[in-house]
Fold this protein.
Amino acid sequence: MPFAADDIRWGLACGPGPDGRRRGWFTASVRDDALRALGLHPDQPTAQVIGVPPPGWWHATAERSASGRWFT
């Protein structure tokens, strides 16, 4: 993972949805300095990846999940 443990803060909330069923959601926050190191902060004039790209399997899994199909 490109972030240190103290760069990310996350929380979990849950409660009943409009239909009465229980729902849960996560909130993730990343320190702006950690994003700047990766070239992702919006204050930068251009955003470009400066680190090592993710492995090929990561891209394939992301594409499969975007299409709604999961393969193992």
In short: The two ends are 22 Å apart (CA to CA).
